[in-house]
Design goal:
The protein is of the alpha+beta class and about 90 residues long. Helix content is about 20%, strand content about 40%.
């Protein structure tokens, strides 16, 4: 199973709200996730909650972060938990 750390959209129409989730790469964007790792509000430009320790654990197990999640971590945290892997 290829695990990816990416964003999953929740919220209403014209009022987006995103969760940072670990999910099987074959699942759809808003499908069932393995673990909720944080939340992001693009309207207020705030990363409301992030579990960098859990993200590091998933990356150590082989999960790949999406470019958007890497960008959020670099922007909103003092110590980015991951680096770009391709």
């Amino acid at each position: 199973m290829a695990v990816k750390i990416r964003l999953s959209r929740i919220g209403k129409k014209n009022r987006p709200f995103w969760r940072v989730v670990a999910v099987d790469g074959r699942k759809k964007r808003d499908g069932e996730s393995l673990e909720n790792l944080g939340t992001y509000d693009p309207i207020k430009h705030k990363l409301l909650q992030i579990h960098t320790d859990r993200i590091s654990e998933w990356v150590a197990k082989g999960a790949v972060c999406s470019p958007t999640v890497i960008k959020l971590l670099k922007t909103y945290t003092a110590q980015p938990a991951v680096s770009a892997k391709k």
